[in-house]
Amino acid sequence: MKAVYENALKRIDRIPPEGLKQIIKNLSAENSIYEAALHSTLDGIIVCDLEYKPLFINRSAEKIFRLVSWTQEFALWEQLNDDNLANFFRKALVADETVLNREISLNRHGGTRVISISISALVSEGKISGNLIHLEDITDKRRREAQLRRAESLAALTTLAAGVAHEIKNPLASIRIQLGIIRRILEKNRTKKTESIFHNISLVEQEIDRLNSIVVDFLFAVRPMDITLILDRAEEVVQEVVELMSHEAEDQHISIVTKIEPNLPDVMIDRKNLKQALLNIVKNAMAAMPDGGVLTISVFVRNDELQIAVSDTGIGIPEELMAKIFEPYFTTKESGTGLGLTITFKIVKEHNGEITVESAPSKGSTFTIHLPLPQPEQKSLPPWEDGVQIEGSHMED
Ligand SMILES: Nc1ncnc2c1ncn2[C@@H]1O[C@H](COP(=O)(O)OP(=O)(O)OP(=O)(O)O)[C@@H](O)[C@H]1O
Ligand SMILES: [Mg+2]
């Protein structure tokens, strides 16, 4: 008890009614603060007397235990609506155990919540006067820990897989070289009989190339990127991509339309990587138009960004697949690896940019790369150079 109240208690008979009123007012104000603090904490707090009847239950505890009403007349466990919980408290309180962070799962409509419960003796003026129960909802904490563990084991697995992929690359290259040698030897004695062997060699070569591109794409997707951003002309990269794909487009009856806004500003890009990102989008767009169509690539400035939009008039993407297309290995193609958009996403992120998609099934899709425009460096002038007088400052000659 505070000294001021102890003193007041000693001379209570001599305190005039006005003084008593003031003391009670002070006491009540202090009490309200303590109560408000206890009710405001996110942790649940329950105070029980020596007969395990609750004297105080704060709002968080009421919420955690879904206690709509409670009374000081019955033991705590008699008022809990969950049998497991009631059993736990009955045993722990009666045994006078000190409980430290015991985890209990409670089934709730929104899913299972994990509650950490601690019980300790309530000590007041050197004497045990009851029990203090502390509750903490650790569901989200546990979830975050589990996510972190999953991310860590995934990272370890990725490193391992990258190592294996890297080891596959070299023997693959050597198999390709050896096949080339075999082809040359056979070439010298080419007869009708050996003709079918050339066909088999071509098939093996195609499979090797496919395997190699899977490994290369995989390594590109998982390894940290070697990227150097410099102020450069993004529209030139777009033109390079168009040139590169023009023959293939013609073969597939696809006409390419480029709309490049005049006087575009330079942006921070890594030409080689941006080209790869765009190529992946353009290849997808072309694959989405098996019967031909129009591929439109526009480059323009909007909302402080340089935007590169690639539109096709192809099959479109069903709404339910939209969230998946950037996931590694997600593909709807027979011979796709599903890494194209993963790599594009990674490159765009390295450019501090964003990528957005709009699509309507059987009408077409638009993939837009958003690159931030370089912001002019803001120079903060000292106030006196800005003609602003600083109050109280005097320039002396
Ligand atoms: N323009 C598009 N129109 C329709 N579907 C698309 C388009 N672009 C992407 N998709 C869908 O997204 C999926 C994933 O694309 P992503 O480029 O990542 O892999 P992929 O093209 O299947 O294989 P690859 O690794 O060879 O590129 C595609 O399989 C396809 O279903
Ligand atoms: Mg692709």
Describe the structure.
Its EC number is 2.7.13.3. Keywords: ATP-binding, Kinase, Nucleotide-binding, Phosphoprotein, Transferase, Two-component regulatory system. This is histidine kinase. It catalyses: ATP + protein L-histidine = ADP + protein N-phospho-L-histidine. One of its GO terms (molecular function) is phosphorelay sensor kinase activity. The protein is of the alpha+beta class. It folds into three domains: 140 residues, PAS domain (Beta-Lactamase, 2-Layer Sandwich); 79 residues; 143 residues, Heat Shock Protein 90. Helices cover 44% and strands 23% of the residues. The protein is built from nine helices and twelve strands. The longest helix is centred in the middle third of the chain and has 50 residues. The structure holds adenosine-5'-triphosphate (ATP) and magnesium ion. The site of adenosine-5'-triphosphate (ATP) has 22 residues, from helix 8 and helix 9.
Characteristics of this structure?
binds magnesium ion; Heat Shock Protein 90; single chain; 9 helices; alpha+beta; disordered C terminus; 3 domains; Beta-Lactamase; 397 residues; elongated; 5-stranded antiparallel sheet; 44% helix; binds adenosine-5'-triphosphate
Topology:
Elements (H helix, E strand, L loop, with lengths): L2 H8 L6 H24 L3 E5 L5 E4 L1 H7 L17 H12 L4 E10 L2 E14 L2 E11 L1 H50 L6 H28 L7 E3 L1 H18 L2 E7 L6 E3 L1 H17 L5 E10 L2 E7 L28 H11 L3 E7 L3 E9 L25
Parallel strand pairs: 7-9
Antiparallel strand pairs: 1-2, 1-5, 3-4, 4-5, 6-8, 9-10, 10-12, 11-12
The protein binds adenosine-5'-triphosphate and magnesium ion.
Magnesium ion binds next to helix 8.
